[in-house]
Amino acid sequence: MRGRFPQRPADRTGGRKSVSSLNKGLGKVEVTLKWDPSPLGAPVHDLDIIAATYSTDDPYGEPAYLVHFDSRSPDGTITLSRDSRTGQGFGPDEALVLELDRLAPAYGRVVVGVVIQQSGGRRTFGDIANSAVRVAVGHHELAGDDFADVAGSTAATVAEFTRAGAEEWEFHDTVSGFDTDPESFAGVMGSRRP
Question: Who's near 89: CB < 8 A, 6+ residues apart?
Answer without folding.
Answer: none
